Amino acid sequence: MKELLSRQFWTAPASCHLEYRKAQPPFPMHSHDFFEIVVVFSGKGIHSDQKDESLIKAGDLLCVHPGQFHSFLKTEALELMNIMIKPDFFYELNDEITNCQAFTEFFSLSSRNKSTSVRKLHLNKMQLIAIKDIINSLQNEFAQDLPMVQVQINCLLLQLIIYILRVKDNPDFPSVHKKSSANLLIQYMDKNFMRNISMQDLMEIGAMSESSVLRAFKHLTGYAPFVYQNRLRMLYATTALSSSETDITTIAYQCGFNDSNYFSRSFKKFVGMTPSEYRLRFAKKISTEHT
């Protein structure tokens, strides 16, 4: 069985490396000398380790420890992101993080983890959007030659780890009441972000006042309603630009923009580059390799 080494993918001083797979093919049993967080965006397949085989699908997040063996089988349009992290990053985390139960269960560096099953979480739609948002920020940092880029990458990586730990500790994070009117509003926005939605629409759907709608979105997502909607649109656009050959005007309409020029301006404000620049930098051919 093959061991994949960090030096095959990236060089110092970066503590992590991202590998996007538009369509992950089956890949035989192998291990790494690094941590690998796998986030499934769409499609499905079978993930196997030395203990178990399980179906993986959109929203699943796997954590493969150094030395653990795993493989991908029977993949069907399995779109995912591999986030490869050097173990040294975890050794440098403070005690507040490493001493919490969620960290021990999910990221513990104990040697016994090599013989246990790969850790797995399932993210709900809101959580997957939040994870994609952090990944998008990481991609932007790698793409730009800015001062203190490694510091910012480490900050974003820490943000990702903490978010995963919070979901591990509370699968409903950041939601508190699953069936509340507030959650119904978020679900509605998640499914209809490409539509023209008004504040009046949200007030009627949630049977809430405008101030209550604003508080609900801020509490559950961290954003005002239409800022959240725009982020959904932009995250959809980043995925479409990097994983399809659909023309930019069509993607703009799919996101809910009637004016492709306005879409391009909004995209650049959100991502830091134009849609064409983003596609040129991040679009990849379907790879036949796995990280």
From TrEMBL:
Q: Which GO terms describe its molecular function?
A: DNA-binding transcription factor activity; sequence-specific DNA binding
Q: Does Membrane appear among the keywords?
A: no
Tell me which residues make up the HTH araC/xylS-type domain. 183-281
Specify the superkingdom.
Bacteria
Give the record's keywords alphabetically.
DNA-binding, Transcription, Transcription regulation
- Answer whether the UniProt record assigns the keyword Repressor to this protein: no
Gene3D superfamilies named in the record:
Homeodomain-like, Jelly Rolls
Give the SMART domains listed for this entry: HTH_ARAC
The name on file for this protein is AraC family transcriptional regulator
